[in-house]
């Protein structure tokens, strides 16, 4: 179970293990109690290759499906990489980057505080990228390296500046950084419905590995 003050489903959901066993209803009830105590709805993340028993029990209890996502990965040598002097990289989550990200994603004050808390808790090597247009931050992302695996997070471009190559340049620069740091593979997660993003990531050389979706409990009266 993961808790992050409700910022995102991924950071506030139960991860059902593919080899899970036991009484599914008892597990669901126990998880619901923990999330309700935290003031959050119970949400389960269901892997496409997992035993369908948990998904079926959740559906029987009125849980609805949402947020189908694609997990993409590739050997880092198969992913486009290119250092770019116009992509700003920082090894620290500076205040300016955090403020720009919150502005682009239109965070509420509460979400802004929670996002900063999550970012500041990162304890593995990370790089924070910014692309500017006329000095204004228009595309941002960060990437972390763990066990020689580079993972992209929060890839976001201003709505008015999309489809101009900013995200591609930024991600290529981050891959170049990761290769220099000894990373051997790349991965990321993206909502399946975000077709432009899926196309971008596959164009960089990433390939679909598996999918997952969420099951959200019915609203409580």
Throw out a few tags for this protein.
221 residues, nine-stranded mixed sheet, 6 helices
Mean pLDDT: 94
- C-alpha termini separation: 24 Å
Full CATH superfamily name of the largest domain? Gcn5-related N-acetyltransferase (GNAT)
Radius of gyration: 19 Å
Please count the beta strands (DSSP E, at least 2 residues each): 9
Largest sheet, in brief, is: 9 strands, mixed
- The fraction of residues in strands falls at 25-35%
Structural class: alpha+beta
**What oligomeric state do these chains adopt?**
single chain
- Low-confidence stretches are none
Task: Give the number of helices.
Answer: 6
* Sequence of strands across the biggest β-sheet: 1-2-9-3-8-7-6-5-4
Q: Give the SSE string.
A: EHEHEEHHEEEHEHE
Instruction: Estimate the helix proportion, in percent.
Output: 25-40%
CATH architecture classification of the largest domain: 3-Layer(aba) Sandwich
Which CATH class of the largest domain applies here? Alpha Beta
CATH topology of the largest domain: Aminopeptidase
Topology:
Elements: E1 14-15, H1 24-37, E2 43-47, H2 53-60, E3 64-75, E4 87-90, H3 95-104, H4 109-120, E5 126-133, E6 136-146, E7 149-157, H5 166-180, E8 185-191, H6 195-203, E9 207-216
Parallel strand pairs: 1-2, 7-8
Antiparallel strand pairs: 2-9, 3-8, 3-9, 4-5, 5-6, 6-7
